[in-house]
Amino acid sequence: MCLFLFLLSITDLHIYSNTTNENTGDSDLEIRFAAELNHLPIGCRTIAMGNTGVVLPYSDINFFWNPSLLSFSQKKEISVEGAKLYGGLSSIGTISFNAPVQKGLNVGILYKAFFPDEITEYDSLPGTLFERQGNYSVNGYVSKGTFHNNHHSIIVSVAKEFAIPILRPTSYSLPLPITFGVGLNIKSVWQTMTPGDKVRMGYNINLDGGLIVRLGVDYNLSEKKIMREVLAAFAIKDFIPTKMIWLHSYEGYEEPVHHTEYYGLSYIDRSGFLYGNWTISLALHKLYQISLHAGLEGEFFDMVSFRCGISNNIVTIGTGVHYKQYSVDYSFSFDEIAYSFFRLAVGVKF
After folding, report:
1. Residue 344, helix vs strand vs coil
2. How many beta carbons lie within 10 A of that of residue 215, not counting itself?
3. Phi, psi at residue 53, to the nearest 5°?
4. What's 293-328 look like in SS3?
5. pLDDT for residue 318 is more than 80
6. Residue 339: exposed, middle, or buried by beta-carbon count in 10 A (0-12, 13-18, 19+)?
7. In the prediction, which pLDDT does 334 show?
């Protein structure tokens, strides 16, 4: 919700350059919810499936959601993604690379950039920020120009996989493992705003941690792979109590960065049920309040995927095609501000 309020503030002119609101004196409202840009979702497959990425290990850019998911990666992978958000109001782009270092140990690096469109700048607006929610009229106020508000982040991730075999009767199947994955993200975030003649920069360094447990429930002897599995996952973002520190703004201005908790459960069926491979995912996100997320994916001919989901009452859809080591994915989100109609990702494994 606070991310939504922040996006409204930059699009509907609630961020302004004067050092104090002349009506309230609430100078600390100038840069509000800036750190919430850390939570802008990425990953075509994940977004199409209702932002349930905490428990989707076989997905591009998966370690953004949960660093432990990287532990299941078996090949090197490069992925590039671009999107126009909120009816073209802003843009986001990512590039990532991950690779196995040794058996069960993987590393990855990801760069994400968020660029909103030019924001109209005003000297002041009436009332407090919260009084202006739902009333965005600027009639009678003269624009001073425009400014930019860009956000960047770099994530370096490391993850390790551990397996515990479960003995079963030989008449049933081969022994199946319970597989654990643990991971850690080291994350650097910086943001630049350019109201007036000043360049204001905020920066933060933090950590994300994650855990995933995978239980194989059906092993195919002829294909020598697990056909059905259940996964449970937990991730916590920004768990170090640091602050977003702003330069060239108010003296000593700092903004708290709140940790976020993610919980997920998914079921993957590769048995060919209804002529496809199926993934069902459920997730809870806990920031200031709890939000519910769910997704469904059907993959046919081991090549074409169709996806849908619901993310805190927002409907999401998407599709994807992969051929050999190449993949292309698309997603569409019916966001509250305006539809995010274009998000495309291209990946290659080698």
Report:
1. strand
2. 15
3. -65, -15
4. EEEEEEEECCCEEEEEEEECCEEEEEEEEEECCEEE
5. yes
6. middle
7. 94
Q: How many CA atoms lie within 13 A of 188 on its CB side?
A: 5
The residue type found at 263 is Y
Domains defined along the chain, listed by start: 2-136+149-349 (2.40.160.40)
Q: With b meaning 16 or more CB within 10 Å and e meaning fewer, what string describes 11-50?
A: bbbbbbbbeebeeeeeeebbbbbbbbbbbbbbbbbbbbbb
Please give the distance of CA 16 from its chain centroid, rounded to a whole number.
Answer: 28
Residue 273's nearest CA partner among 253, 238, 299 is: 299
What is the token pair recorded at 194? 């350019």
What's the mean pLDDT in 159-183?
Answer: 75
Which range of 12-21, 68-77, 128-137, 159-168 scores highest in mean pLDDT? It is: 68-77
- Whether pTM > 0.85 for this model: the answer is no
DSSP class of 190: E
By DSSP bridging, strand 254-256 and strand 243-247 are: antiparallel
Residue where the block lists tokens 């199946």? 176
Mean pLDDT of the region 75-100: 93
Which two tokens mark 302?
A: 């081991």
Which pLDDT score is estimated for 171? 53
CA–CA separation, 89 and 84 (whole Å): 7
